[in-house]
Every structure is written in structure tokens, then in C-alpha cells.
Design a protein that fits this description.
- The protein is of the alpha/beta class.
- 38% of the residues lie in helices and 15% in strands.
- It contains 15 helices and 16 strands.
- Strand 11 and strand 12 form a beta hairpin.
- It starts with 12 loop residues before the first strand and ends in a 9-residue tail after the last helix.
- 49% of the residues are buried.
Length: 479
């Protein structure tokens, strides 16, 4: 029997992904207000970095988002480098606090709007399709100070005003939108994801899932607005993807793995793609004493205005076991049992290319909607050699093996339409705030303490990815 093999489809969206708060800098320029990440200092402990206890700046600490890599002022140079690689798309975000500095103004900041006008024009000049996230951890800090964050229903109204403003402004420049970055991250990093600051003794589950409901409603309102403003727009949603394997075939391990995938991922994607809360949520709410305040019309809105496509990040998988004696590892923001069959990155993230194929098949089997992988990459320590080169063959190997599994998933029947590798230029790490953990094809001369010239250098992987795009994924060789 002849083996049937399908290549990446014509028009496949090859590119990269970034977020405003991790690369723009210019944190007070052109009227921008303070956002939650602006109060997060560099901290090599992931769990501490992502918890905000009070919105105050400590003069003895370094806040990496304040300058980041100064992309706000250097974007033309950076976009020209992406164009040199042949990018078909760039997934980025609009910084909410540049458009509405406090988040609750009635009129937007024209300087912020003008910046993104120019930015999208520059992308389109090179034929690069923008994929724009409305909210990528960039909640204006005033919303937390004044309203307490996303568990206050008032924030739906504020977000809807912001969403309508930018959807209308860029209706002829941006086709693809994503409402919230990794919307399920609210359960892992609620401060950064949703501006929630908890007091001791509060029912964190109650506040977190009430905030999640408000974001679901806000997302559907954005979908509604987008369809009314320009019916050709495609409004997607995004989750942090982390396939969970049972550590053994013990039914208890299998059940635990399924429960984690349901609670950590499918709860969120089901609401946004199927338009209703999944059946298993009732038991989860009951067992965690969660009583959602759902207003008249909310459930009808969720049902009518589901997302047009699914996007997800994929860096690793994890394992689950009821045996509490097994060693665990923290990858990104999720704890799991160490998988003895996998190697890990310098930061302990378990490298699992086949897990990407598994995730793609699981999502497509469940939803039958187009998929874009909006984050995937390797954080590593990159060194400049004596000749001024960065020979990051380890990154090439990582990406090559994941792209091979993407092709396998396409042959499985998955409707995969795009891949935006994270992040094509070195940027500030969201989880720790450091620069030492580098993902890019482009090296940025800056260290963990903020020192450096900000000079950009092409790594070996830059030329490799250029070839991948030129051949539509058919040539993955490293030579």
C-alpha cells in the first residue's frame, strides 16, 4: 500500500509570536499607563515572579518590562529582520494601557492608537499578516486598584470598550484576532493573567472562576463586535496546552491525568469553542465551593458567539500520579511528575515533540475548528563565540522535531493553518523576568540586570528558519 503523505498547505502561516509587555519597553512613553507586568520585578523563582501582593515599585529592584528590548522605538529594525526570514505572519499584542492608560477612560489615547497604526502598516508593507491578541497579561494596573481585577463585572464593560475601539480602528489592517492569551492561565498565575491580588483567607477558587466567567463573556462580546465591524475578521481563542500523561496504567493515574486536562484546559476551551460550560464543571464547582454569579443573557451570549478558531501554546507535557513519593518538576507554571522517557531544557521543561502531535489531534477531534500553534520554542542559554556567532543547533533540533510532528498531525487530518514560534527575537521571560533564557532567532545584547547595547545579531537558527519558510516546511535539514 502506498503511503499517503500531505505537506503543509499552501498559504500556511509561518511566523513568530511576541507580546507587547515582554518586548516593547517604553513603559511611560506616549501616555502609556502602568500595567500589572510593570510591577513585576525580575525573580528567578517562577511562582514568586507571578504573584503581585501590592502595586508599588521598589527602588531596589529591577523591573524588566520598563525597557524590555525597546521594540517600541526599534520595531522597524526588528520587523525588517522578520521580513528577511520570510515571515508570513506575526502574532503580537496591543498593550491595553497604551490605548486606555487607566483602563476606564471614556476616550482612548490617540498616541497609542497611532503607534499601532504605524506598526501594522510596517508589517503589511512586508506582506506579514498580523495576528493580534487583545489581552496578553497587560491589564492596566488601575483596574486592579479601583475594581479589584477581573472578578469585578465592571471590567467586562471596560474591556468591551477597549476591544471595540481597536477592532474598529484596525478593521482594514488586522484579519486575525485572539481575545485572551492563554485564558486558562488565570488558574495558574491569576495576578499576571487577570490582575487579581488576593487577601489572606479569601476563597481563591471563587474569585478566580468568577473572573474566568467574566472573561468568557468579554471574549464573546469581542467576537460579536468583530463580526459586526468586519464580517471577514476571524476572532480566535487561546489556551496554554500541557498534555498530561498517566505515569502508569493504574486506573487511578489515568483518571487523575484526565481530570487535570479537563480542569486545566478543556474547561476553558469548551466554553469558548462549544459555547457552554462542560458537564464536569458542575462537580468541580460544587467540590470547591464555587457559586458563579451568572447574569441573564450570559449563557446565550456564550453560545451564540463562540471563537472562530483555536490557538494554543505548546512547550512540554507532564505526567500525573497518585504516588506522592515520585519526583516532580515545575515546567512553565505547571507542576507534574517527571517523565523518565523525556529530556528537559535548562529550565526543567520536559521536551516532548510527539506531545504536540497528540495535542493537535486531541483538540481537532474535540472541536473540528482550524488551529494555529501560537507559541512553541526552546528557552536556552545562548553564547556568542569568538567570531561573534551564536551557534544554536540545539534550538534548531528542538524546532525541527516539533515541526516534523506538526506535519504528522496534518497527515492525521488536523486542519493546522499556522505556526508562530515563540519568540523570534530574544525578549524578557514572562515567568522569571530574565533575559538569560533566550528563545529567539535574533540575539539581543542585554543581560539579566539590564546591561547591554541592545544590538541585534542573527543566530544560526535565523538562517535555518528562513529556509524552512522558503520551502514551506519541506526542508528541515541543518546545514
Amino acid at each position: 500500500m502506498k503511503k499517503y503523505e500531505q505537506s503543509f498547505p499552501d498559504g500556511f502561516l509561518w511566523g513568530g509570536a511576541v507580546s507587547a509587555h515582554q518586548l516593547e519597553g517604553a513603559y511611560k512613553q506616549d501616555g502609556k499607563g502602568m500595567s500589572i507586568p510593570d510591577y513585576m520585578p525580575m525573580d528567578l523563582t517562577t511562582l514568586k515572579r507571578n504573584v503581585v501582593e501590592k502595586l508599588e515599585l521598589d527602588p531596589n529592584k529591577y523591573y524588566p518590562s520598563h525597557e524590555a528590548i525597546d521594540h517600541y522605538n526599534r520595531y522597524k529594525e526588528d520587523l525588517s529582520l522578520f521580513a528577511e526570514m520570510g515571515f508570513k505572519t506575526l502574532r503580537t499584542s496591543i498593550h491595553w494601557a497604551r490605548i486606555f492608560p487607566k483602563g476606564d477612560e471614556l476616550e482612548p489615547n490617540e498616541a497609542g492608537l497611532k503607534h499601532y497604526d504605524d506598526y501594522f502598516d510596517e508589517l503589511l508593507k512586508y506582506g506579514i499578516e498580523p495576528i493580534v491578541t487583545l489581552s496578553h497579561y497587560e491589564t492596566p494596573a488601575h483596574i486592579t486598584e479601583e475594581y479589584g481585577g477581573w472578578d469585578n463585572r465592571k471590567v467586562i464593560e471596560l474591556f468591551e470598550r477597549y476591544a471595540k475601539t481597536v477592532l474598529e480602528r484596525y478593521k482594514d489592517k488586522v484579519k486575525y484576532w485572539i481575545t485572551f492569551n492563554q485564558i486558562n492561565d488565570i488558574t495558574f498565575i491569576p495576578s499576571m493573567a487577570a490582575g487579581l491580588v488576593f487577601k489572606e483567607g479569601e476563597n481563591r477558587y471563587q474569585r478566580t472562576y468568577q473572573a474566568a466567567h467574566h472573561r468568557f463573556v468579554a471574549s464573546s462580546l469581542a467576537v460579536k463586535a468583530g463580526r459586526e465591524i468586519n464580517p471577514n475578521m476571524k476572532i480566535g481563542m487561546m489556551v496554554y496546552s500541557n498534555p498530561v500523561y498517566p505515569y502508569t496504567c493504574n486506573p487511578d493515574d489515568v483518571l487523575l491525568a484526565k481530570q487535570r486536562e479537563r480542569e486545566q484546559v478543556y474547561f476553558f476551551s469548551d466554553v469558548q469553542l462549544r459555547g457552554e460550560y462542560p458537564a464536569f464543571s458542575k462537580r468541580f464547582f460544587r467540590e470547591h465551593n464555587i457559586n458563579l454569579e451568572i447574569m441573564d443573557g450570559d449563557l446565550e451570549l456564550l453560545k451564540e458567539y463562540t471563537a472562530d478558531y483555536l490557538t494554543f501554546s505548546y512547550y512540554m507535557s507532564s505526567a500525573a500520579s497518585t504516588n506522592t513519593e515520585l519526583p516532580t518538576t515545575l515546567g512553565n507554571v505547571v507542576f507534574g511528575v517527571k517523565n523518565p522517557h523525556l529530556k528537559a531544557s535548562d529550565w526543567g521543561w520536559q521536551i516532548d515533540p510527539k506531545g504536540l502531535r497528540i495535542a493537535l489531534n486531541d483538540y481537532y477531534d474535540r472541536y473540528q475548528k482550524p488551529i494555529i500553534i501560537t507559541e512553541n520554542g526552546l528557552g536556552a542559554v545562548d553564547l556568542v563565540n569568538g567570531s561573534g556567532e551564536i551557534m544554536d543547533d540545539y534550538r534548531i533540533d528542538y524546532l525541527k522535531r516539533h515541526i516534523e510532528q506538526m506535519k504528522e498531525a496534518i497527515n492525521d487530518g488536523v486542519n493546522l493553518i499556522g505556526y508562530t514560534m515563540w519568540g523570534p527575537i530574544d525578549i524578557v521571560s514572562a515567568s522569571t523576568g530574565e533575559m538569560k533564557k533566550r528563545y529567539g532567532f535574533i540575539y539581543v545584547d542585554k543581560d539579566n540586570d539590564g546591561n547591554g547595547t541592545l544590538e541585534r545579531k542573527r543566530k544560526k537558527s535565523f538562517y535555518w528558519y528562513k529556509k524552512v519558510i522558503e520551502t514551506n516546511g519541506n526542508d528541515l535539514s541543518n546545514n
